[in-house]
Amino acid sequence: MENTGIKIENLRKRYGEGDAAVEALKDVNMHVAPGEVVGLVGPSGSGKSTLLKCLGAIIEPTSGRMTLGQEIIYDDGWKISDLRTLRRDKIGFVFQAPYLIPFLDVTDNVALLPMLAGQTNAVARARAHELLDALEVGHRANAQPSQLSGGEQQRVSIARALANRPPVILADEPTAPLDSERALGVMRILNQMALQYHAAIIVVTHDEKIIPTFKRIYHIRDGRTYEEAGQGRSL
Ligand SMILES: Nc1ncnc2c1ncn2[C@@H]1O[C@H](COP(=O)(O)OP(=O)(O)OP(=O)(O)O)[C@@H](O)[C@H]1O
Ligand SMILES: [Mg+2]
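Structure tokens for the assembled complex are given below, as produced in the milestone run.
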């Protein structure tokens, strides 16, 4: 099977049972091609985090189908036994806060995941340096996270999300704490990385600064997705 990016078909997620049940996702359909960055926008409680958690194999959907990269990971039940390895090797997470490990320097923060995935120290560090250079924080490779600015820390956390070359990157409000120029800088980097590493990227956001940059946006309302053409403003 070739790399399909992210494909979600008829996905449903119900929390709880009986009277207390919440239908968080009712019928979600999305496709993000390799190399594409799409926005996911919706009001509070519409199911955005639930969807990212299902895709990230953090919670189990109720029914439907999810394909990530080259494999069907869920089809009315998990299709793979080792969800930890899936999360580590196939999915890069970028959060609103960078969550860098404070006692590791910048290079080791990025090299840690490839090392856990079985790469040699030399390969993992070379990969870290390549990504840090691409993200224009290579000159801070030996610094401790606490010595970096907020924007620099966010770029290191993007390098970390990309370090295992995952076919899928899930970003939850990655630009919320950043000013306009840096928020657009993060979007420029995510778009470059999508093209360079053929990653399919979903960015959950409320951020009016970056919404005009998406070529395609999925709106989620009451557990259902609606696709819309975005402005695709150049970065
Ligand atoms: N663990 C849970 N148990 C029961 N209901 C839940 C649980 N997590 C979320 N929900 C419900 O599912 C619905 C979707 O929640 P979700 O967190 O996905 O929304 P969201 O779009 O991320 O909202 P926000 O923008 O506020 O972060 C909400 O009605 C929420 O109350
Ligand atoms: Mg949420």
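DSSP finds six helices and ten strands in the chain. Residues 48-49 surround magnesium ion (ligand 2) (CB under 6 Å). Further analysis is deferred to the final report.
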